[in-house]
Inverse folding.
């Protein structure tokens, strides 16, 4: 994985939800950043992107991976308002920070979306511990692949480095077959 | 992630499927090894483990990650025979190498399973590029977590090192919303 | 299944989408009516109710079963507007008729929702060929159960009666095992 | 739905599991019979057919719908033995009656499978309250469609007639939005 990547441009956010203070990429140095860009009326965002962002938030320690949502409205502007987004966040019980991308000037595409040249929603952006843009993916990406890229970014040196403890592994094993104490199966 | 792990014990396999020559862990040095242990009549193996092993095989380049199946029969020995396994492999169209763990002596648990002290099936074992045992997980493990651990192992130096190309990312984006050339949405 | 049920109260709809002319229950006599009530920002409606309504529409002939959506806004009124619903219908590519329940007077619950005493969204209402209310279900209902109740209503005499042709059965059989011409398996 | 169907031929079963006494179609008159034919090494049977048969068993009262499994081995005869099937039934915790179709003479296809001219596995056969063959479907069939056909058969007069009580409806509604006592939403 090349490390000659460009620095990720700073976010341009007009309003934040789920965070007491505004978030900047500069302030997240040392952590891997998973930026999930979406629109609340985009079906692929609702069925795939938002649930994946929620899994990311749950899977990785926040000191290692910062999961950020960005509402990048480039269509239906009159109904995907901040007020509508607030209702959406409430109904879907989202608890990670979500910013509203600042509308473009003479351009339906908002500013951060323009700077990152995103093709649409959902798009997933990964930024490494040093603030470099490492992945920008439009459409669906499988959990296994996303996990693999994040795992590699976590392994790279940064200002601080840590890794998910093995103990974080889910152990809820329905359907598994267990060896008993005497070699016979139990349960 | 600790690197003080023990060396993974060598496999004890009586018969191999889907490989022209027997496989040894020693022969896989330099690659990350994902060892999926299963029984053909274990429901959790069929619904979760085998499909995940198939995804692993498809997701990672074989020069980076070796996906190996191991049939660790510790119950119903009389029906989970090599002949039955051959039919199973054929019906499920499995194409990665699968070994048959050598039956135990005075013990229903087969030999490799004993050496790894596996608790049952499915169990997933990860071995790093240097042959050290890094993960042994009984039951289900989520794709995102598994990907993250493999990503970290891939990032560690070994005899050879490479990483999944970004171009390997799936781009099949149903449900996504795209910005048109003029900022208007297409399709 | 009792047939002493009350007549279903008429819909009170302020605006219709996906139909050239307003729809009344009276005009649907002779057909079974599946009324799917939802809110566009209700997660259970998006993940369960709307996809199920779409399957209903695809599964049954329109001359037998009329699938109708009803947007019953009882919260977040300022953002779940008709304009927002129009964008929602467009983005989700919904093609069955959808009405907007008329807002209540001094009551956040809209009029049809009040008349049917619905507890929330999603709610599924089934009306028989004679216009009687036969099922009102709040929350998720399994496809098999829903199909069974509709099948029973279809079998009841009405002004007209017909049934789904066996040829409507999906025959897309991945994973199936076929006997060959000579008794040997093919493909 | 035509009622001029032929009588379903009697089952030819060599051994039964999960029933104290042998089962005959003649003995099931008055009930709708759902006959699920499968092979334990058929992937489509494991992923689709068996789980659907289990849902059928759970959804309908046994006095209305009899769910019967039939192991119709037409390939890999030497490993899909009665002993292997017993282990399979135990591992998958199947609790509905399952019969073993009697092997064919000079024919790999077993006898009942021949009489019904089934094309392979999984195949689902529906028999009405009067013992007539009403549906024979090879491959996957959607729950909604299957429910609809069974609902129609249940509505037909037979020696006895009953229907699933509305109270059988699942009410486990995660993700639903509820109106509070005063019209405000709760939960």
């Amino acid at each position: 994985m090349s490390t000659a990547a460009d620095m990720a441009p700073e976010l341009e956010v007009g309003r934040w939800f789920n965070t007491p203070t505004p978030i900047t990429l500069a302030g997240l140095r040392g952590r891997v950043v998973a930026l999930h860009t979406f629109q609340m009326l985009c079906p692929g965002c609702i069925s795939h992107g938002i649930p994946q962002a929620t899994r990311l938030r749950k899977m990785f320690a926040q000191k290692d991976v910062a999961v950020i949502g960005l509402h990048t409205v480039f269509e239906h502007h009159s109904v995907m308002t901040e007020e509508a987004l607030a209702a959406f966040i409430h109904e879907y019980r989202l608890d990670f920070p979500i910013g509203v991308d600042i509308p473009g000037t003479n351009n339906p595409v908002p500013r951060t979306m323009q700077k990152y040249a995103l093709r649409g929603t959902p798009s997933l952006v990964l930024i490494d511990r040093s603030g470099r843009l490492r992945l920008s993916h439009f459409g669906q990406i499988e959990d296994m692949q996303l996990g693999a890229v994040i795992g590699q970014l976590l392994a790279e040196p940064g200002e601080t480095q840590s890794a998910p403890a093995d103990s974080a592994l889910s152990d809820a094993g329905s359907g598994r077959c267990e060896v008993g104490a005497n070699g016979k199966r139990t349960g």
